[in-house]
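#struct-help
A.M.: can someone run this one for me? Single chain, 247 residues.
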Amino acid sequence: MPEDKIITKNLSPDLSVVVLCYQTGKNTETFVESIIKHFFSNNITNYELVLVGNYHPGKKDDTPEVLRLLAAKYAFVKFVAKPKQGMMGWDMRSGLEIASGNFIAIIDGDGQMPIDDIARVYKEIKSSDCDLVKTFRTKRGDGAWRRIISIVYNAIFILLFPGVFYRDINSKPKIFSRSALNKLHLCSNDWFIDAEIMILARRHKLIIKEIPTNFFKLADRASYVKFSAIFEFIKNLIIFRIKEFKK
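D.P.: on it. Structure tokens below:
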């Protein structure tokens, strides 16, 4: 397993898709192939896939090797696989740092989010004056626990940051214009990064659009979101609310 491996390609894509592949292993191959087929059918050709497979040293995980092989196979694929220094937020920022597209989309690589949505948000941001386009989940297959967490997240967010109503702050894919992403200066290393994106988008008065989607059931593993994430989220929201008062 690589100790600190980043592979990049010299491309000038219009679209970068950052795929969060934490412990997705060989399933990543199927996910990437599905994206390629979907883009082909939607006549999307000028793109790159940025696969993020950061890992815990000493823990069995074949994801970095799978990503290496995919990057060797496809000229439009690059990857980052480094020893973990944070959670989902750190992984996301690792991918965003090497994404080179004019538009940058983020999606989880576990198959819960429809691949079709990548093309949907891309076409929407290209045909509009939006800075950020994201989905909101109208149907969810991930069980009562995750739905409860989501309801709590969004209710607290609206309470602490009134005036802007986002229906589903954690939903992906999210897609930004390059100029919009450059304004955000993201710093979260944990699960809070989706909320940080929306808070900073609010602060910079970005033009945002949400489009509906469905959320699939995760068949082969339990959710990585734990009960402690609720308290972590509330703590971070309060910290960011205090920062807003100081602006």
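A.M.: thanks! The helical segments are 27-41, 63-73, 88-98, 116-126, 143-160, 178-184, 193-203, 228-246.
D.P.: also worth noting: The radius of gyration is 17 Å.
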